[in-house]
Amino acid sequence: MKILHIGPLTERFNQRLVTENDVVQLWRQGDALAYLDAHGGEFDIVVTSARFGCSAAMLERLPKVRAICSFGVGYDAIAVDVARDRGIRVSSTPDVLNDCVADLAMGLVIDCSRRISASDRFVRAGLWPAGNFPLARKVSGKRLGIVGLGRIGKDVARRAGGFDMQVRYHNRRPDADAPYGYEPDLLALARWADFLVLLCPGGAATHHLISAPVLDALGPEGILVNVARGSVVDEQALVAALVEGRLGGAALDVFEAEPQVPEVLYGLDNVVLTPHIGSGTEETRLQMEELVFANLRAFLDTGEMLTPVV
Ligand code: 8YV
After folding, report:
1. In the β-sheet with 271-273, what is the strand arrangement from edge to edge?
2. Which neighbouring-strand residues pair with 233?
3. Are residues 118 and 179 in the same domain?
4. Ligand 1 site: residues with CB under 6 angstroms?
5. How do 45-49 and 89-91 pair as beta strands?
6. Is the torsion defined by CA of 149, 153, 155, 157 positive or negative?
């Protein structure tokens, strides 16, 4: 079976894939679509990631492909509808990254509210001798709204319990097993919340779900935390709300055109910016890698995958 590896992961992952299989690394082949026009018919399996995905334009040029093994839980960059229509199996890496993404979400809540990164900048700039750092906002006991109470959302909710927070959530439908208040109206959740944490999938269904009215409902004391996808937030509206002081703060791990970050945010002290590090720990990335290889092995051995999304 011939494997098309779409974009580089760690050197260890890339090497392991090459050592164990017959692999072409697409990023070394010049123009991707031109390469696939000439050679796409040779491949049986695609290995990719949440970041590089596999577009409909690529799948069109991969007539023999039967499986896509992706590194990452989100699959909004993969043309899953096309895959489904063609009977192509797709796997992602759910669950193994829940702890780390939930940890980061809580870390960003605390950082943005207690202004940890801002106070670090204050000390490093030598400003402390000239006066005390301005007072921040308390975290414990506050109201945490979750947009997307899935597996990671529940882990965030559990952690918030440790901070004596009240938790409510917005999903398309209520989750009968969730012991948290369901809010069918996103605007009402934003109005209620001190912190609005985004944990929903990306893609067309959630595109710009967090619009100007939602940001205004969250308001000048509210904090937005995004560890989901940049596409979920209308970034222009977010920047405007922050610049005009209509939103209290934002902690963002994902962006609409990452790795590009709107430069105006660099100058705002009530904003915490991280470079899509939700799953980025040694332990979790290793588990994600193992799960990609386990899915690949399972497909090669049985034609089925361990953690399929299609
Ligand atoms: C990426 C992510 O997988 O899992 C996801 O959906 O967004 C991340 O964990 C990681 O950045 C590699 O693409």
Report:
1. 181-182, 166-170, 143-147, 195-198, 223-226, 249-252, 271-273
2. 210
3. yes
4. 49-51, 71-74, 97, 276, 278-279
5. unpaired
6. negative
Q: Distances in Å between the alpha carbon of 280 and those of 120, 208, 233, 253, 261?
A: 22, 25, 22, 11, 19
ipTM of this predicted structure: 0.96
Find the helix packing angle between 98-114 and 282-302, rounded to 10°: 150
pLDDT band at residue 310, thresholds of 50, 70 and 90?
confident
Range of the domain at 84: 2-94+282-302
CA–CA separation, 115 and 24 (whole Å): 46
**Rg of the chain, C-alpha, whole Å:** 21
Cα of 172 from ligand 1 centre, angstroms: 23
Per-residue pLDDT tens over the stretch 63-109: 999 999 999 999 999 999 999 999 999 999 999 999 999 999 999 99
Tell which one of 70, 97, 151 to mutate to probe ligand 1, the residue whose CB is within 8 A of the most ligand atoms.
Answer: 97
Do 198 and 290 have their domain in common? no
3-state secondary structure of 66: coil
